[in-house]
Amino acid sequence: MPDKVKILVGCPTSDHKAYCLKEYAEGIKAMEGEFDVLVVDNSQTEEYVAKIVKVGLPAVRGPLTGAARERIVACRNVLRDKVLNEGYDWFFSLEQDVIPPPGVLARLLSAKRKIITGVYTKEFKKMQDGKLVGRVVRPLLYMIHNGNVAQMEMDDLEPPRVQEVFSAGLGCMLIHRSVLEKVTFRWDPNFKAFDDMFFSTDAMKQGFKKYADTSIRCEHLEMSWEGNEK
Predict the structure, then answer these.
(1) According to the model, what pLDDT value does residue 224 have?
(2) Which domain holds residue 46?
(3) pTM score of the predicted model
(4) Sheet of strand 7-13, all strands in order from the earlier edge strand to the far edge
């Protein structure tokens, strides 16, 4: 891994992600290099944080006020505060349902970018004339196309390279502390966007560019949010 640095790996979570806890723990333990881990749990009960600790991952209870998105943002800011208050150089935001490939930290660090993400995908409904005609897999990456923000397609990832993007999910994102010094995680209930989009736009306002290494492909063990409070 390039030049020894202090890295915090972690994410907000809740017992809705219990189905992939084993895989997440195995994925983190398989990562190379030196780093610390903290998972911040916002479940309604204390049972899940105990399960996280049992699989060998440090975990704490996060703020429990508000709806799910508010709790997620509050937990991200627990991690941000830890980075800033305890002298970390980097925060590696690794969501519990995202399993990275080998050597992910060294590969992201080697790009020497203040914000850089690996790639993970999501399945979306394919609609035509208001009807569902199939499903399509797309990366959770967005770029500017013809003056508008557009989601990238799988073909846009080729050839594998480091490229600038407009925004990305927070599932596999390496963020330098200088970014976190100027950008706080937030969410606005008046907009449909998630906190990752606010992070991207706030970082852009502070002069930070975002990049993706399209050669880093993660496994996304996504769940359905249907029926869950968002």
Answers:
(1) 54
(2) 7-220
(3) 0.92
(4) 59-61, 36-41, 7-13, 90-94, 172-176, 115-119, 210-217, 162-165
